[in-house]
Amino acid sequence: MKVLWFIPSHGDGRYLGTAKGGRSPEYSYFKQVAQAADRLGYEGVLIPTGKSCEDPWLLAAALAAETKRLRFLVAVRPGLMTPTLAARMASTFDRISDGRLLVNVVAGGDPVELAGDGLFLSHDERYEATDEFLTIWRRLLEGEEVTFAGKHVSVKGAKLLFPAVQKPYPRLFFGGSSDAGQQVAARHADVYLTWGEPPRQVKEKIERVKELARQEGREMEFGIRLHIIVRETEKEAWKAAERLIQHVDGRTIEEAQRVFARYDSVGQQRMRELHRGRKESLEISPNLWAGIGLVRGGAGTALVGDPETVAERLHEYEQLGIRYFILSGYPHLEEAYRVAELLFPLLSLDVPSSSIRGEVVGHEFFPNVIKV
């Protein structure tokens, strides 16, 4: 099991749907979160992408210099950058970070935001463009000189002069719940990502993508994006979940869901279906809570409970075939410590021997941060 954390480059806070208890998106705070994740033994961090976030590549490059072993899952955006430019960025980052790059392929799901960036392709056309983009990107990083004429992307005599450290290239992570997205993932991705849906739905996705990959003559790994609300007791955890959305009212939910309704992302539609815009009955599967998705786009579910219960739920996903767990919690600095203290000892983690995880579990490192 490999566990990654999250850099809240759009801002952070103790509550959702309000500025109360908020933390502005400042580099000094991002550095705190990254260095905590680095020292605690997290495999890496996901840096989000979009107009509401700081640029992920510039932020990752800065944070790589502030950390020692942490990997950075950074987005490439087909349609917003060319595959040759993206290949040069990836190879440069991989070299200057000594092989710590992971690549997150993001096709986009908000037509309004995409139009603002000058991209006017339909949902399926974006995945056509992504397929062509990744065909070129992978061949360049494998050392080929590429001439390719596609419907959306064409290059002639493209070549990458400075290779990446990782061979044949940094691992490609890819999330997409639509048929078009899964087809492209099966053809190119190393790790297929899903948001935190109930285990039955996740199992169906894994089986579907595995079969598509087999048809391409490939094998792949799987990952999941989840929030975590873990406390020493079940009661405390559920109280923390309710506190997180205590300032979320009906109007705030309605405004957020109106924005999400315009998305053509199948994954976002599946997230909305889990809660249907209501604050009632948010536990959609044992310990899986959909409250975050009321006002937050993207990953909208959290595992809630005491350490033993949350660990059991994570192992259920692991038994389905999930290896990469990309976790987060509000606020991200304190919750990075809390998850490491309470959950890591119960998980079958793949962490380097240089991690100080044992010190944290022993309450010897920043004990006051854990107990806020």
TrEMBL record:
Q: Which UniProt keywords apply?
A: Flavoprotein, FMN, Monooxygenase, Oxidoreductase
EC no. given is 1.14.14.5
Spell out the reaction equation it catalyses. Answer: an alkanesulfonate + FMNH2 + O2 = an aldehyde + FMN + sulfite + H2O + 2 H(+)
Question: Is Flavoprotein among the key words of this record?
Answer: yes
Please, which domain of life does this record's source organism belong to?
A: Bacteria
Task performed by this protein: Catalyzes the desulfonation of aliphatic sulfonates.
Query: PANTHER family from the xrefs?
Result: ALKANESULFONATE MONOOXYGENASE (PTHR42847), ALKANESULFONATE MONOOXYGENASE-RELATED (PTHR42847:SF4)
Indicate the family of this protein.
Belongs to the SsuD family.
Indicate what this protein is called per its UniProt record: Alkanesulfonate monooxygenase
The protein's organism comes out as: Geobacillus thermocatenulatus
